[in-house]
Amino acid sequence: MKKTIATALFSCSALLFAGSVLAADTIKIGYNIPMTGDIPKVGESSKFSAEMLKADINGAGGLEVGGKKYMLEFVYEDNEAKAESAVTTALKLIEKDEILAMIGPNSSKQAVPAGQVADDNRTVMVTPWSTNPDTTKDRPWVFRAAFLDPFQGPVAVNFAVKTFGAKTAAVLYDLSNDYSKGLAEIFRDVFEEKLGKGSVVAFESHGTKDQDFSAQLTKIISAKPDFIFVPDNYNQVALIVRQSHQLGYKGQFMGSDAWGSSELMTLCGDDCKGLYFSTHYAAAGAKGATKEFIDRYTAEYGYVPDDVAALTWDATNIVIKAIQDTGGLTGKLRKDRKAIRDAMSKIPSFEGVTGNMKFDEQGDPIKCAVVVRISDSGEFEFAESVCP
After folding, report:
1. Between these two residues, 338 and 11, which has the higher pLDDT value?
2. Beta strand pairing status for 276-279 and 252-255?
3. Residue 278's beta-bridge partner residues?
């Protein structure tokens, strides 16, 4: 009997030891993404893209770092598309889940405050989609895979002036969203610098939860702008465009990269066809590695990957490269996190499915933007590429 108990205890100890070895041979990366809330499609796109990449690497036997193979473990946490939830999610991933690095948040509204948490806790964070400069500004532990709004704003201005022959514009934006407010202000300043003071004939705001935009749109339409700039998330865009048409507006819109979800056309339908927005890549007509990514994602999940999916693929691959560039992991969390940050800061350039990028001292990529047109079949077609 004593022998049986001893044997059982030994077996349990062996299993526990085996589990600890297995854990030591695992690289854990956290995802701070919106799986519920206003923009759940953003979280879904990020998770699907990450899962596809993880399956590739683990299916090949794991990630080799310093001559040793590690299996990838991705931890997905829902930030509910809220700033305060993004902060608590970041803390959970860093302190409880003990991740080596964090991907996301995506939207600047969540990425700006979460970036402070990552920086304070000395953990690498790479946001795939946030374009607000404050996300990475003076935060050496925070990086991104997207271009910045001070670049995107002039892209939208110049395209609209050239394509629409515009001399006046109106702007409608989300006052409580760092991304939307910041890009709206950049657009207004650049447009008025280009075409003169007063050329932005209406500058209207709304709340994140608003569903009725008729008051703002009535003011905008009465100002008779040549086009309306809407730097809002795709779910808000669908309502704004439809309501503007119901109020009799027949003019053009110019959008930004937050339009780029695959859910936009599901929500907006015919109302959004023929409109333009600036973004990170164009799926229709893509070639090479980008087309390969699109084809695989579409076959796996049943729809064309949006810019969030593509940017998450790039952001995760950048982190994976940095992990490999450390030359080896020690198993000591703080030491390995610092090694990854040091390796991230030394990556001079990266070739991703959203294009080639070089990183500046803030951890921001210098890369091209594209303008896409929503075709009559609802596809995001390439219209123009603009590079720094």
Report:
1. 338
2. parallel
3. 371
Query: Nearest-5° angle of CA 94, CA 96, CA 102?
Result: 25
pLDDT of residue 284: 86
- In the numeric block, which tokens belong to residue 148? 């910045």
pTM (2 decimals)?
0.90
Mean pLDDT of 35-61: 97
Distance, first Cα to last Cα, the chain:
76
Cβ-in-10-Å burial (0-12, 13-18, 19+) of 9 comes to: exposed
Task: Enumerate domains of the chain plus CATH numbers.
Answer: 2-147+287-367 (3.40.50.2300), 149-279 (3.40.50.2300)
Q: How many CB atoms lie within 10 A of CB 360?
A: 10
CA Rg value for the chain = 23
Distance, C-alpha 83 to centroid of its chain? 15
| Cα–Cα dist 256/278, whole Å | 5
Q: Tell me, letter by letter, the H, E, C secondary structure of the chain.
A: CHHHHHHHHHHHHHHHHHHHHHHHCEEEEEEEECCCCCCHHHHHHHHHHHHHHHHHHHHCCCEEECCEEEEEEEEEEECCCCHHHHHHHHHHHHHHCCCCEEECCCCHHHHHHHHHHHHHCCCEEEECCCCCHHHCCCCCCEEECCCCHHHHHHHHHHHHHHHHCCCCEEEEEECCCHHHHHHHHHHHHHHHHHHCCCCEEEEEEECCCCCCCHHHHHHHHHCCCCEEEECCCHHHHHHHHHHHHHCCCCCEEEECHHHCCCCHHHHHHHHHCCCEEEECCCCECCCHHHHHHHHHHHHHHCCCCCHHHHHHHHHHHHHHHHHHHCCCCCCCHHHHHHHHHHHHHCCCEEEECCEEEEECCCCCEECCEEEEEECCCCCEEEEEEECC
